[in-house]
Design goal:
Length: 120
Amino acid sequence: MMDNALLYFNEIDSYEDIEGLRGKRENIFIDFKQTSSTTGRMTPDDKANFSKAASGYAHQQGGVLIWGISTRKDDQEISIATELKPINNVGTFCSALQGFIKAATESLCGWHTAQSNLHG
């Protein structure tokens, strides 16, 4: 059952919603990641970050991984979204991520991916 994860996913509809995530703490249902890729291709770190998040979500009730947001640790060592870091060539990155998901997961897993072309 992925009710909590879907609630997070369904609350993100616009660029303003994404901007509103700044200051939000990561939890078992939501993770923020950024990529250092300038071409849109996934880096080894991107693949490791996705794999780690997917593993965690598989042991919970699902989750939402949001790319393009940097984080910092608070005084309790929990990551907080700090700054939007738009992905260069987001279409290429999204395609690479979908390909990696196919290659890295079993068909029994359910994944929702969404590409945002929203600009602030």
